[in-house]
């Protein structure tokens, strides 16, 4: 069992830290927000008063923060205070460039590092069933895997520094584009007088099949667990999908990849979120497509 510092105790971080405690690790948490600190204390998590106090005795440090700038700032602050031989894991979803920059920062101090973003959302964080997509050396992956197993059910080594973030943005670019395409097909079907269930029965077993239809169908009925049956409450909020699509476009621009479908999906989610749909599930974009709100 390891001494673990966990920084960033928000919607994802707190339940992840609690799963580490349940697995028998010694966990000390830190968050800047008084509300997050209060929730963590109420849940029984031990807290440090500062980022530096949090990491001084830790063998493993996990960060679960909003964006690349937060991760860079925290890693820059703590990297000199972390014990020799420690492993730093960032599980936030951030840009590939920042992920590679913090790997370098850790490497320069002789520390092990992994970028290990997750999929599975808050439900997966609570249940301990997240998928971790990891980037880093084989040595860092071997050191991190037993810790990540306390919070997830699939731990995948995707390659070197930044490969986990690369896998995450590629996956979510596919998800954003297929969700828009699936919503468009259901709206077209409505206008052609085709029943939702009939379209589902065909698409879910035909060449148009994807996770967006079979596991997360954007209309009520065919998949009882999808947010469409729950007033489009997230699930996976449209604002988070937008964040990931923008990261995919940033990555595409810096790598020189041509991603017109990803760009179109990013543009549509930008408009959907700008209309106030921040706390709506990303499959709720079907309502805007149906009303033609997104058409100039
Ligand atoms: P959140 O906003 O609920 O939590 C982030 C926490 O980080 C906050 O409590 C904030 O106070 C804290 N924080 C910010 N700066 C800090 C600092 N310098 N030191 C210490 N704490 C600091 O966000 P979340 O939903 O928990 O998401 C965290 C990350 O996981 C994001 O990168 C997000 O994109 C990713 N993610 C979220 C989901 C999801 O469904 N929520 C799913 C997959 C991935």
How is this structure best described in words?
This protein has 296 residues and is of the alpha/beta class. The protein contains 13 helices and 9 strands. The strands form 2 sheets. The chain has a 6-stranded parallel beta sheet with strand order 3-2-1-4-5-6, sandwiched between helices. Strand 2 (26-30), helix 2 and strand 3 (46-47) form a beta-alpha-beta unit. Helix 1 runs parallel beside helix 6 (121-127), helix 4 (68-78) runs parallel beside helix 5 and helix 8 (163-191) crosses helix 11 (238-255). The model has no long low-confidence stretch (mean pLDDT 96). Nicotinamide-adenine-dinucleotide binds next to helix 4, helix 6 and helix 11.
What's the β-strand tally?
Answer: 9
Mean pLDDT: 96
> Span between N and C termini?
57 Å
Into which percentage range does the β-strand content fall? Answer: 5-15%
Number of helices: 13
How large, in whole angstroms, is the Cα Rg? Answer: 20 Å
Uncertain runs? none
- Overall spatial form: elongated
Bound ligand species: nicotinamide-adenine-dinucleotide
State the share of residues found in helices, binned by percent.
40-55%
Report the sheet with the most strands, covering strand number, pairing sense and barrel closure. Answer: 6 strands, parallel
Order of helices and strands: EHEHEHEHEHEEHEHEHHHHHH
């Amino acid at each position: 069992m390891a001494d673990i510092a966990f920084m960033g105790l928000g919607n994802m971080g707190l339940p992840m830290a609690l799963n580490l405690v349940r697995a028998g690790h010694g966990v000390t948490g830190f968050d800047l927000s008084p509300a997050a600190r209060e929730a963590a204390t109420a849940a029984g998590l031990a807290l440090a008063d500062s980022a530096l106090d949090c990491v001084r005795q830790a063998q493993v440090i996990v960060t679960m923060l909003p964006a690349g700038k937060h991760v860079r700032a925290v890693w820059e602050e703590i990297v000199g205070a972390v014990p020799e031989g420690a492993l730093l894991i960032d599980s936030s979803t951030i840009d590939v460039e920042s992920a590679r920059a913090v790997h370098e920062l850790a490497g320069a101090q002789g520390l092990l590092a992994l970028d290990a973003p997750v999929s599975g959302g808050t439900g997966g964080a609570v249940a301990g069933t997240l998928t971790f997509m990891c980037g880093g050396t084989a040595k860092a992956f071997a050191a991190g895997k037993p810790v990540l197993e306390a919070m997830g059910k699939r731990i995948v080594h995707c390659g070197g520094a930044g490969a986990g973030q690369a896998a995450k943005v590629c996956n979510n670019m596919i998800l954003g584009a297929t969700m828009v395409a699936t919503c468009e097909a259901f709206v077209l079907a409505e206008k052609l007088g085709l029943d939702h269930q009939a379209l589902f029965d065909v698409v879910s077993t035909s060449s148009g099949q994807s996770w967006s239809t079979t596991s997360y169908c954007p209309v009520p009925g065919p998949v009882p667990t999808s947010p469409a049956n729950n007033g489009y409450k997230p699930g996976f909020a449209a604002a988070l999908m937008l964040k990931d699509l923008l990261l995919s476009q940033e990555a595409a621009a810096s790598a020189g990849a041509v991603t017109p479908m990803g760009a179109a999906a990013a543009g549509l989610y930008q408009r959907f979120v700008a209309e106030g749909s921040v706390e709506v599930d990303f499959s709720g974009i079907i309502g805007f497509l149906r009303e033609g709100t997104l058409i100039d």
